[in-house]
Structure formats: C-alpha cells, structure tokens
Amino acid sequence: MKKYLALILALVMVLALAACGQTAQPAATEAPAASEAPAAEEPAAEEAAPVEEPAAEEEPAEIEVSPMSYAEFEAAAIDDPVCVETYVQAKQSWWDDKATVYTQDGDGAYFLYNMACSEEDFAKLVPGQKIRVTGYKAEWSGEVEIVDASFELLDGDSFVAEPVDVTDLLGKDELIAHQNQLVAFKGMTVEAYDENGAAFAYKNEADKTDDLYFKVSKDGQTYDFCVEYYLCNEETEVYKAVENLKVGDTVDLEGFLYWYEGPNPHITSVTAAA
C-alpha cells in the first residue's frame, strides 16, 4: 500500500513539474507592417513654352487720300497724310533712290524731302513737270515739308513759277506765307560776313565743296542768305557770283524761301541791282 502511495505521489510531482515547466508562449504578434512610403511622385514633365513665331513684318499701308488744295494742305496737321498735285521747280539732290525737290502751283509751294525716286525717274523731274505727291506733312525747325513721299508723273499742263518780290516783307511775320516759293529780293546791300570783312564765307573752307553764306541788308536790317551746295554747286553761275561779291555791292536776288529757325533763302540767282 505504501508502495502504491509512493508511486502515485511521484507521478503527481512529475506532472506538476511538467506543468510548471511549460510556460504559455504569448501568441506571436505579427510585426506591424512597415508603413509603405508613398511612391515618389515623378515630377510632372514641364510643358514646353510655345514658341512664338515672329510676326510677319507688315508692309506700310498705302496712304489713301484725295488730292488737296494748297489751303487744305496748310490746314492739315503735322503728321497728317497729304496728297497734292504740284509742279517741279528745281531739284536739290538725289541719293540712294531718294530725291529732294522744290515744287509749286499757283497758290503755294511744297518742299519734298527724300521722296522715293529712282534715278531714271529723277531725270524726268524737269521744271514745269506736273506730279501727284502722296506722303505726310512734317516740320523741322520751322520748315514745313512732305516726307515719306512717293509720286507719279502726270500728263497735261505745265507750270513754271515767276519769282514773287517779297522785299517789303523782310522782317515781317507775313513773309512765312511764301515759304518754299520762288521769291525775289530787290536792291539788297552786301554786308561784311564776319569781323575779317569778307563778303561771304565757305561752310567748308578747306576744299570749298559746301554751302556759301553771305549777309545782305535793307533799310538798316541785315539778313543771312545761303547758296545751298546740293542745289547750286561750285559749277553754277550763282555760286561763282557770290564768290565775287564785294562788301557794299547792291544786288537783286532770287531763290527758294527755305525756312530754318526763320527765313533762310536758298539763293539761285545774284545779279547787279538795276
């Protein structure tokens, strides 16, 4: 009996020890899933800036304006488009397909500055030739002119102006009404041009291929006149006549009433006063 009790007791102890040795293992916890980093966003491809095509250069629009009278031309504002029918009186210059020309009709005169003109057409611009001129009215230092102009030759009548005697208008505001016209100054006295007593001066003293300047007086007032080289060069009679002036000479003058800060006549004829 004692034997059986001892066996039972031994068995109970073994079972108890076995039970104590088996510690409950905690349920395996799954490692938290690594939070997935958001996929790196690829930078959006930049849209290429549209390449602007250079705008086609527009040709200047043709001026559309009807021929106007001299009074209408006078009334037009500076920079206005103008169109006149007029007559060639003298050609000042031609260069690089541009011509500078004095023109006139029975009412007034026009100075055409750097008008588009081929060399062939320039030869056709003889005194009296009628032309239609289209351009813009402009002003420079008092001189009113037509610029950016083109022209066409017109058939028909011819007109060559007679010089208008404006001697009595010297020094008066009314003189400007004859701007760019062919005018005359009668009985003018040659004055010393400078302190050296010369009757005239070369703009280009070195080779004498430029304008001539001289002074004349009337009724105690002295005025500055000019021989414009491109209009009348050293081969012309008027250029040589001015070179031969002497202080005290009394002369009659003709020329175009150009304006630069006041009257600055471009003289085309010098003769001894009658």
Descriptive account of the structure:
The structure is a single chain. With 274 residues, this protein is mainly beta. The chain folds into 2 domains: 70-153, OB fold (Dihydrolipoamide Acetyltransferase, E2P) (Beta Barrel), CATH 2.40.50.140; 164-272, OB fold (Dihydrolipoamide Acetyltransferase, E2P) (Beta Barrel), CATH 2.40.50. The protein is 14% helix and 35% strand. It is built from 4 helices and 12 strands. It has helices at residues 2-21, 70-75, 119-122, 237-243, and strands at residues 81-95, 98-104, 109-116, 130-140, 143-153, 164-165, 182-191, 200-202, 212-218, 221-227, 250-256, 266-272. The strands form 2 sheets. Strands 6, 7, 8, 9, 10, 11 and 12 form a 7-stranded mixed β-sheet that branches. A hairpin with a 2-residue loop joins strand 4 and strand 5 (143-153). It is globular, with a radius of gyration of 50 Å. Residues 1-12 and 14-43 have low confidence and may be disordered.
Number of strands: 12
Query: How many distinct helices?
Result: 4
What's the gyration radius in Å?
A: 50 Å
- Give the name of the CATH superfamily of the largest domain: Nucleic acid-binding proteins
Q: How far apart lie the N and C ends?
A: 186 Å
Q: What gross morphology would you assign?
A: globular
Helical content stands at 10-25%
Report the CATH C-level class of the largest domain.
Mainly Beta
Assess the beta-strand content as a share of residues: 25-35%
Overall domain count: 2
CATH fold field value of the largest domain: OB fold (Dihydrolipoamide Acetyltransferase, E2P)
Uncertain stretches of 5 or more adjacent residues: 1-12, 14-43
CATH structural architecture of the largest domain: Beta Barrel
Sheet of most strands: 7 strands, mixed
Average pLDDT rating: 85
Query: Structural class of the secondary structure composition?
Result: mainly beta
What is the H/E order?
HHEEEHEEEEEEEHEE
